[in-house]
Specification:
The chain is mostly beta strands. The protein has one helix and 22 strands. The strands form four sheets. Strands 2, 4, 5, 8, 9 and 22 form a six-stranded mixed β-sheet that branches. Strands 10, 13, 14, 17, 19 and 20 form a six-stranded mixed β-sheet that branches. A five-stranded antiparallel β-sheet has the order 6-7-3-1-21, with no helix packed on it.
């Protein structure tokens, strides 16, 4: 009899443990969380070109992907831009703690609200319907629509480094056409090159270490004299400084050379896979509310 009671107690304890663990895991899953990694995005305008943003969620079946029921609005400093044509795909991203996060990739047409360049700071996306409201920070966005000239170059790759444990784009190595004479400005929205620190005919590895930099990586002062393009092999290492840190992977860059603006269109400078777990400092949690 005592043996039977002991076995029954073990079974009951096991069932109770299972229920507690299941309830705990269920609670975690039911608490929906959304994150973004704020990025700097810039594009040369073309009529059919798409721009892309990513939202990370701890649920595989989020309401944000049901385009027919939702409204999608970009907003920045009081200005709003409703998105009517959007495509959403998803894939598994990474494990964080006891949760699996999924990457929701949102593709939409470039904004074409103006004939001039469009430059927006601290852009958010608002996704909502009758059941929920989600507001996420995307970062900075530029769409260049002026009649800039394509830059002539023969080789190009990005340089990157770990900044406080997170991988960031910190410069580019380029072989310019020898017809150019004086570089006056390099900019990616509000990021810029401290051009007095440009180096000639030095081919650094793609990945560098932060203690190699002789210039301030986070910096909002960028006035400097024009840089003479006199490298014998026409190679230049062009450093990039940030007024505040956002992620840069694929962007269009503007360069002012010999009094005119030229562009490099949509080149991938940081090709590593971007996962939410790799950017614990930079990531920002979205504001999610059930209706």
């Amino acid at each position: 009899m005592k043996k039977f009671v002991f076995i029954l107690s073990l079974i009951s304890l096991g069932l109770l443990s299972f229920i507690l663990i299941f309830s705990y895991n269920k609670k975690i899953v039911e608490e929906e969380k959304y994150y973004t990694i704020p990025q700097i995005k810039s594009y040369i305008y073309e009529e059919d070109k798409q721009m892309e943003f990513t939202i990370y969620a701890n649920t595989k079946r989020s309401l944000i992907e049901y385009q027919e029921q939702n409204s999608y609005t970009l907003h920045s400093k009081g200005n709003q831009y409703k998105i009517n044509d959007i495509k959403i795909t998803k894939e598994q991203d990474s494990e964080m703690g006891q949760e699996t996060y999924y990457k929701y990739i949102l593709e939409m047409p470039l904004l074409s609200i103006l004939e001039e360049d469009i430059v927006l700071e601290q852009v958010h996306i608002l996704i909502q319907n009758e059941e929920f409201r989600l507001d996420c920070l995307l970062g900075d966005l530029a769409i260049y629509k002026k009649n800039y000239t394509p830059l002539e170059f023969h080789d190009l790759y990005g340089n990157y480094s770990y900044i406080e444990g997170e991988l960031h784009f910190i410069g580019l190595t380029i072989e310019l056409d020898k017809s150019y004479q004086m570089l006056e400005e390099v900019k990616i929205i509000h990021c810029f090159s401290p051009i007095s620190y440009i180096e000639k005919d030095i081919l650094y590895d793609s990945q560098r270490t932060i203690n190699e930099f002789p210039y301030p990586f986070i910096n909002d002062t960028h006035a400097s004299d024009p840089f003479p393009l006199t490298a014998k092999e026409n190679y230049y290492y062009i450093p990039i400084s940030y007024p505040y840190l956002h992620l840069i992977t694929n962007v269009a860059i503007l360069m002012k050379i010999d009094g005119s603006y030229f562009y490099i269109s949509d080149f991938t400078y940081l090709a590593n896979k971007i996962s939410l777990k790799d950017y614990p400092k930079l990531r920002v949690e979205g504001e999610y509310q059930n209706a």
